[in-house]
Q: What sequence folds into this?
């Protein structure tokens, strides 16, 4: 929610409306500045205020304590589900409540399309940050040797 009378700490102009990036992060730009998509530069005041990601209530229960789960995002744009009773106290640097959390993993869907490199089937992958790509179903990750295996075809959508 935008606080109406918030002003830019740089130039004193009121802040603009809250907008959302593709990855679901919210921000407010200074109303004295505007983004020029052609030059890919900010014109006028370049102040941007990032808003904290608001946890989204989920229709899922915590497997540990039965409280509802919430979806939240880390500073590094990774999404995770955590127990709504969990909270972080920045003063004492300790977590309280239930400690259940689960990283949101990429979602993989099978496609009826062939890989242009090796003719295997392609799969569509949606990353936890909401990006989608097509990749070869033969590709994998060798956890022991920490190397990618199989065909390396990738197409970002
Ligand atoms: Zn400003
Ligand atoms: Zn819990
Ligand atoms: Zn392939």
A:
């Amino acid at each position: 929610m935008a606080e109406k009378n918030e002003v830019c700490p740089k130039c004193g102009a009121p802040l603009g409306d809250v907008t959302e990036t593709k990855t679901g992060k919210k921000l407010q730009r200074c109303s004295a500045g505007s983004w020029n998509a052609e030059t890919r530069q900010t014109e006028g005041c370049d102040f941007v205020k990032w808003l904290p990601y608001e946890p989204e209530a989920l229709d899922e229960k915590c497997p540990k304590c039965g409280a509802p789960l919430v979806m939240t995002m880390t500073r590094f744009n990774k999404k995770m589900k955590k127990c709504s009773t969990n909270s972080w106290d920045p003063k004492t640097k300790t977590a309280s409540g239930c400690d259940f959390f689960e990283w949101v993993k990429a979602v993989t869907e099978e496609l009826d399309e062939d890989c242009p490199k090796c003719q295997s089937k392609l799969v569509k992958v949606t990353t936890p940050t909401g990006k989608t790509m097509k990749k070869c179903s033969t590709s994998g990750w060798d956890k022991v040797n920490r190397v990618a295996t199989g065909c390396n075809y990738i197409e970002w959508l």
Q: What stands out?
A: Residues 8, 10-11, 13, 30, 32, 45, 47 surround zinc ion (ligand 1) (CB under 6 Å). The mean pLDDT is 88. The longest strand covers residues 107-114.
